[in-house]
Prior knowledge:
Shape: globular
Low-confidence stretches: 1-7
Mean pLDDT: 81
Helix content: over 70%
Distance between the termini: 17 Å
Structural class: mainly alpha
Radius of gyration: 20 Å
Order of helices and strands: HHHHHHHHHH
Number of helices: 10
Number of strands: 0
Amino acid sequence: MExxxxxxxxxxxxxxxxxxxxxLGTLVIPVILLVVGEGGALRVAGRTLLYLAVIGVFYLLLGxxxxxxxxxxxxxxxxxxxxxxxxxxLAVIGVxxxVWSFRLDxxxxxxxxxxxxxxxxxxTDRARRASGRPPLLIALALTAGLLEAASMxxxxxxxxxxxxxxxxxxxxxLILVGYCAVMILPAGVLCxxxxxxxxxxxxxLDRAHDWAVKHTAGAFSWAVGIIGAIxxxxxxxxxxxxxxxxxx
Length: 248
């Protein structure tokens, strides 16, 4: 299969990390903690940083585990990815991801009578209860990470790019450290804003919270669509060649 690195590579990893940085666990919940946290600004920022550190380490360990399992599989079965039958399956998966991304779009969800912001609102109460209690913040971070792992398509795509780059587990783990750092960087910057400005940051953080709640679902929809388009573009040519008998 033509390498995903040709299309994505390091730049793709940065873009996927930025998409992951806008997720519910890495942005919405931290902003909620900064908004509803009680006590001094430094205390609120510090406890939010504790949450970010926990979820960042969670994703790092999860990524290393996924990469450790993926690399041996690629070594053993990577040659099969070049077969036209697999290309056809991947092309179909790519097209289905693009179609699914349109259904995930917040406007499409709203038209079907759903509430694209419902999940973020539910987490507001959980974050408020955990705010100010380090053990509960740690539990909140682990819970958010576990629940989001079920829909971590950008993160899985990043694992695929890393494996395709052929960097190995050791270098791949170091790259994952940087990836996870980018994931929590925007929320970390907001922690710095809270620590530096205190109560003067309230209006700004309120707007940041509203923006994060509004755009989280949309960012995920875009990520799914882009990943699907990359997969489809990489595989549809060989798949069509095989279907039309051009590869025989």
